[in-house]
Amino acid sequence: MLKSWYRYFRPEYKNPEERRKMNMLIGASFLVGFWGPVFMFVLFLLGYKKSSYIALLAGLGMFSTPFVLRQTGSLGLSANLALSVYFVAVSLLIGLLGGISSPMLIPMITLPVVAWTFAPRQHRILWFFATIGVYIFYSVGHLLGYTFSPPLPRSTHLLLQTSLLIAITTLGLS
Question: What is the mean pLDDT of the chain?
C-alpha cells in the first residue's frame, strides 16, 4: 500500500536520485505525521495539554508535505515545508517542556541532517544556523535566569527520550 502512495504523490518525470529522495520524504512525512497523535496522547496523559496540541498540529502539518509535492513537483518546496513544520513544533516544545533540559533537544539535532538530505543546497546551511540559533536562544535564556516551564520529572524525561529515540530510529530504518 505504501508503494501506491509513493506512486500517487511522486511526479514521474524526475531522475532516479530525486525520485529516491521524494520517496524518502513521503515516507518520512507519513511516519512523523502518524507519530504526532501518539506523542499527543502521551503528553496529554502526562498533563502537558499545550504540548500535546502542538504535537498533534505538527503531525497533521506533516501530512500536507506529500500533497504539496504532488501539486508542485518541487522537492525543495515540500522539503522546506516539512522542515518548517518540524522546526517550529520542536522549538515550541523545547520551551514548553523545560527549556535547555528538555528531551526535545534530541529531535532538534536531527534537523540539519534531514535538511542536508532533502533541502535545496542553498537552504541546508540556513537550517543548520536556525538549529544553532535555537540552542543559543535557550542557553542564553537559561544562563540569564529565565525560568521555562517546570522541567519534566526524571521518569517522564526518560520515557519521552526513549520514545523519541525509537521514533528517530524507526524513521532512519524506513
Answer: 82
